[in-house]
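Subject: for your reference before the review

Hello V.,

The reviewers asked for a structural picture of the protein, and I figured it would be easier to keep everything in one thread rather than splitting it across files. Below is the amino acid sequence we used in the manuscript, unchanged from the supplementary table.
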Amino acid sequence: MAEKIIAVSAGREITETEFNEFVSRIPAQQQQYVQTPEGRHQALAQYANYFLFEKLGQEKGYDSSEEFLKILEGTKRELLSQYALTQLVKDISASPEECREYY
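And here is what came back from the structure prediction:
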């Protein structure tokens, strides 16, 4: 079954699945609003704007500027360290008895 396209922005199709993933990353305190029709519409507009500004940034060459590359490298380090930590601890578990014994 083909993925449902819900919008097109800067020539890029936005699928319902990827938009729902974007919505799931919105902070918990805003989730109730995002579940309303108006909130979903605003979230979709915001998501579509990301692609418009991405395209603008590429057209202006911002993606190859020294400042952008420095920010990108720092962000990459932060994300990789968080991901590495998540992978390291994802299979660790402790029984209630082990927890009581530890504390």
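For the response letter, the relevant points are probably these. The mean pLDDT is 95. The radius of gyration is 20 Å.

Happy to draft the paragraph if you're swamped.

O.
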